[in-house]
Each structure stands twice: as C-alpha cells, then as structure tokens.
Amino acid sequence: MKTDSVLNVALEAIRAVTGSGSAPVALHEPCFVGNEWEMVKRCLDSGWVSSAGEFVGEFERRLCQHTGARHAVAVVNGTAALHTALLLAGVMPGDEVLVPTLTFIGTANAVAYCGATPHFVDSEEETLGVDPDKLSAYLAAAVEVRGRQSYNRATGRRIAALVPMHTFGHPVRLRELLDLGVRYGFPVVEDAAESLGSYYEGRHTGTFGKLGILSFNGNKIITTGGGGAVLTDDPDLAQAARHLTTTARVPHAWSFIHDRVAFNYRMPNINAALGCAQLEYLDDFLSRKRHVAQAYLASFSGVNGMRIQVEPKGCVSNYWLNTLVLDRGLEAMRDALLAALGEAGIMARPAWTLMHRLPMYTSMPRMDLSTAESLEARIISLPSSATLGAKVADS
Ligand SMILES: *Cc1c(COP(=O)(O)O)cnc(C)c1O
Q1: Does 228 sit in the ligand 1 pocket, CB within 6 Å?
Q2: Cα separation of 167 and 99, whole Å?
Q3: Strand, coil or helix: 145
Q4: Is residue 169 a contact partner of residue 104, using CB atoms and an 8 Å limit?
Q5: CA spacing 20 to 30 A to 30: which of 133, 189, 270, 370?
Q6: 57 Cβ contact partners less than 8 Å away, ≥ 6 residues apart
Q7: Model confidence, pTM
Q8: What is the pLDDT of residues 279-289, one digit of tens each?
Q9: pLDDT tens by residue, 144-167
Q10: What is the best residue among 79, 83, 123, 190 to mutate for testing ligand 1's pocket, by most ligand atoms within 8 Å of CB?
C-alpha cells in the first residue's frame, strides 16, 4: 500500500516534467536544429566522405576549443578511443586496469582488448563514480609498490592504469584519484564519454588524466552518428594516437608502408561534418539540459524516499542523463516504477548491469563493491533530451 502511493507520487513528479500527453517520451534523442544538413551536404558535394577531408581536422580543432585540451584525435567510437588511450598509457597484455563496475560495457571491454584484466572498483553516492577514499584504503592493503609501479598482491599482476568514469555527466573526485595515481605509479585515463560540457574545478573533464576520451554516439550530448575522440595535452601522445588509429601508415606519396600492427579507427569525414554542426549547438544543449535538471529537482523537492542526482560540489555537470536515486529500502520500487513509466510511454532505464556480474567478467579481481551494488538496485535514468529542455523552458 505504502509503496504504491510513493510510486504514484514519483510517477506524477516525472510526468510533471515530461508532460502528460500520449506521445512517447524518449530517454535521450538527438537534436538536429542547426547546420547539420548544410555541413553533411558540403561533405557529400566535396566527394571526401571517408578517411580524408577537411571536416575531421575542423572537428578536432573545435573539440580543443570547447574542452581546452591541446590535442583531440577523432575516431570511430568512444570504445575505440578508450582502447587507443589505454594502449598509449602503456597498458600491456597481462596487466590489470582499475575500472568502476558501475559503467557502460565499453570501459571494461577496452581493457580486455589490450589483453589486460579489468580490476573492478566501487563507486560512491555523491558522484556515482569511483570512490577515492574506499579505493585508497583498498590499495593500501591490496597492492605492493615495487620500484615506481604497483602490483596486485593476490595475482602478481601490474596495476597499469585507473579509468574513472564521469557517470551520467557528473564529475568524479579527480584530485584524489590523480593523487592515488601518483602515489601508486599508474596513469589516470578518464572515460569522459558521458561528460562533454562537464567541468571539475573549472576545467573540462577528460583533460586531467594522461589521456581522456569522449563519445559521440547517438544518445550522447552531441552526436556524429557514431564517434569518439582521444584528448591529451601531450603532443607525442597525440601524434601516436593519430598513427595508431590510421593503420600506422608511414606518410609517403604513394607507397603503403605500415610500421606496426595498428587500427582502422579514424573518424570518417562525413561523421565529422555532422559533429562540426552539432558542436555549434553544444552550449545551447547544455543550457536546455540544465532546464530539464532544474525541472526534475523542483518536481521532486517535496518527495520523500528518493532524490534527483545533483552536480557534485565545485563541479559543473552537463546533466547528460538525469537520475532518480531511490533511498535504501525502496529497491523493490525500481522495477515497478520502470514498468509504470513504460506503460505511460515514458522511456526510463535502470543503470547498467554491473560489470562483475557479466559472464566474461565474473572471475575478474575486485574490491568490495557494495555501494555500486546498492546503487544499481536504486537508479533510474529519466528522459533528458535537449528537445525536452526546449519544451520545459517554453512551459
Ligand atoms: C558511451 C560510452 C562509451 C563509449 O561508447 P561508444 O558507443 O563506443 O561511443 C564509453 N564509456 C561510457 C561510460 C559510455 O557511456
């Protein structure tokens, strides 16, 4: 009985934002309101739709402007960007890489592509990202520092990197995590796939680690259809990223000479044309998404038993996906609310199934993951499109 009434209150609070009409409401739909047709047409007219052409370089320049990164290398998707970044960070077969269990599959898969093992770490309530305090206590017991590197005491494998992820656009506590990297001798590679437009201490996410990555998949804040980018301030790493993602072809007027086994990961020009147009509207998308977040916050302000995730202190979040977090004890309501929303034509989603529960990753090393396990049972992602923001602002 009691749960039923809480559920109805939550449902009404969501409908107050999404509107109570009968048209289905998407979780996150792309928004094409600018020069997309014009840019893609220019690309088609130029005949350069594939791995050469003006738009890829232009897109990279604009990414640098928006993020403050010195270098951006555009690739086919965010997972490929992360694979590339991990290889350049020095991840080798047989290594372990610390990754949150509460993340999209791409984070863990990119580690596996390197022949390395994902080592799963816990998240915290405040940011939904890696918990630096808990990780610090865990590392003190679980790893041995030899020379300037750390090794897992249980497996003997080297800890080669840490990949924090800015969950749903909310920045993690980067300072503390970077400090751990220094103390234990591993680089930080930021999975900023969800956080284009999010800032930590006034600086763009994805620019703190040795390397960072972005994604421009169809559900992200801007899209290139499929796409991603590697960010770094290091010119040598940027050069290496470019080489590694373009089949390691040695520049020559006509000969096909490749100096290592590498990848065909370069972003096609036609995708970059779309990306150039989308970036022109990034600031507009960000303000619309902030409207959506404010609308959810207002709508849930008097509702007990749950909260809307807010940007962490000292951070600016892009509010990519607004998240309803149920209080502990209300786990049973998650699926009931998801079902009720589905019936009402409102697309909402649970968090990802935790990585350590997926068949290929069940036997991987891990710390205590109780907070991530609890969060997974209590998280619902709510409709958050920029198009919804326009409606909210008009009403
Ligand atoms: C979207 C996303 C990626 C990359 O996804 P692609 O579909 O490969 O672009 C990586 N990590 C996280 C956390 C993501 O949300």
Answers
A1: yes
A2: 12
A3: strand
A4: no
A5: 189
A6: none
A7: 0.97
A8: 999 999 999 99
A9: 999 999 999 999 999 999 999 999
A10: 79
